[in-house]
């Protein structure tokens, strides 16, 4: 099967196990374009036995890959990045067809970020793995004579890592797992999201061309839950890295607990955005407004739960309404489009159910709430609710769509209390003209990250969540730490 055939969806995709393209025992299922409802291409359905074979292939490859020189691992990752950049246009076209992303998002934030992550972890493979430990003077005793004992902490690869990826970014999300895992000397079994798995096979293809040995990277897809379950439960798996809903993450954690497997979990979010009376409202509106447009709200870091101090409450609501109403919803291939479709009909229906629930709970629908124009495709209008309370389900639960709720508050203490009154704690945001207050408030928020007067990210800063938003941290060098175990080596001086 040629690269072009797989990229354009003109041939049936096969599984990638042990360096071979393998016919799926479970047959095929259709990958649907969210913008047109047309079939992009058939995707392979792995059997549990084939998942086990992928784990065995990763296990067999681990010893050799883990002992490969860091410079060689770095070279493989760097060459993979070059392949991704060489095939950039075709990969972006496929990503757009699978995920419904706008052209700019598919190119820059999906494929482009993926290439950048492989480049980053090519450098990461060369980062020192040893950390000095202060020497310790021991007196003579039952354990032996007196002496000075040196020690060093060394990061070692965990082993075989199952990577279960999210549908909102079929390139950057798997690259953020696979690249640091391989840089540290692990081998991987990737289970892509069922909605858009084809891009992950292109990533595996790029790594194979770059010289990744057979079994170092394996990809097994499927629409049935048995595929993911087998990839988590297999005895040969040492770690599971998962991005997705909290409910699924909890089930994975239970299985990992039985086998004492390491976990890295990036789960749900319901980001609180505290906007104080002295905030730059234009900045706050443009930052919060990305919830309506960026991935059509299908992103766990979105500031979906706005907490507005009463002095600017009505002006902020009006500004967000104007922002939402000027956004163009439509075909993501059209350069004018800002808001594309959501991933599936089922997810569109779920978002619409939350919209109806918010109205029933007493929220004021300011704008949106209807199904927008295109006759085909899974579109949701940017939707804004005001006069909400923290008790409403639409405020408390992750909707994962272009829906923003606004809750008023009176003073700093109430704003902090409302922000922390949540099961989630991934990314929160603070807008205030008083930077000292903004940082003081940030220090009291129970979230893994806080944006002060920005929704921007520092891609070397640790990323992960408190509470039900996850376990562990990745991004930058923290991802290398996440995919490693610490070993202590001690010797007498």
UniProtKB/TrEMBL annotation:
Presence of the UniProt keyword Oxidoreductase in the record: yes
Boundaries of every Aldehyde dehydrogenase domain copy: 21-488
GO molecular function, one term: oxidoreductase activity, acting on the aldehyde or oxo group of donors, NAD or NADP as acceptor
SUPFAM superfamilies in UniProt: ALDH-like (SSF53720)
Keyword Transferase assigned: no
Pfam families per the UniProt record, alphabetical: Aldedh (PF00171)
UniProt keyword list: Oxidoreductase
Family statement: Belongs to the aldehyde dehydrogenase family.
Record's protein name: Aldehyde dehydrogenase
Species of origin: Streptomyces noursei
